[in-house]
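assembly run, all chains below
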Amino acid sequence: MKLYTYFRSSASFRVRIALNLKGLAYDAVFVHLAKGEHRQPQYAKVNAQALVPTLELDDGTRLTQSLAIMEWLDEKHPTPALLPKDPLGRARVRAISDLIACEIHPLNNLRVLQHLKRALGQTQEQIDTWYRYWIADGLQKVEA
Amino acid sequence: MKLYTYFRSSASFRVRIALNLKGLAYDAVFVHLAKGEHRQPQYAKVNAQALVPTLELDDGTRLTQSLAIMEWLDEKHPTPALLPKDPLGRARVRAISDLIACEIHPLNNLRVLQHLKRALGQTQEQIDTWYRYWIADGLQKVEA
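ok done. output:
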């Protein structure tokens, strides 16, 4: 397996943690987001969404979206399990994961922060305030 | 079952579609987001995240986050299935769902649009441009 990843991408982090927990070997291919390597034609062939991570299987099949990759890993390599066995426990873990992946992370993605700067003309200080606001709001919801 | 929902909430829409596809009866409790009913203390007791939907089971257990609710529905009421049976097909459907739920929807949520207006002082026209930008960007990624 080959994982297209970036050290600072929290979505890639999740998948690396899952792979390591399950003891699965993979080759890491680094895509430098800050340098815009994910928007180069070379990476568009790998992932048309221009996002990391992408997990490439040995037969060339490519999986995208961190949570979908983790569900696949859990179905194909069930031990150790990422999700509990009972449906209610699974729903709880998935709800917490979705809260982080859907309510916090997308708002503080590099592409959104760059859009705030370029299209909305926000200063770095305003962008930092935006970042802190959604992190605090989201983590309060996780704790609740 | 009781579903806390709002007609214009696309996350609630997903769950209503799933319940109807599976032919499951439920009582709808309407939470008027535009009037801020989700931020009232009454709803905080139901869902500490102040988000819809919430699915309340007959024993009082409450499930949150639309995709986690749909996975639970699919595990407890497997027919008709929301996901294919093979792991790769499941990964593909989940990736498309996550792309919509994580990359498009959170950026255009009511709370984010209100934040753009109140905290960042954006005009309605700028907010509409923001909305269109992320819808177009996200749906291009889905098509790709």
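Helices of chain B lie at 10-21, 41-44, 66-76, 87-104, 110-118, 124-143.

The longest helix of chain B spans residues 124-143.

not gonna interpret more than that til we talk
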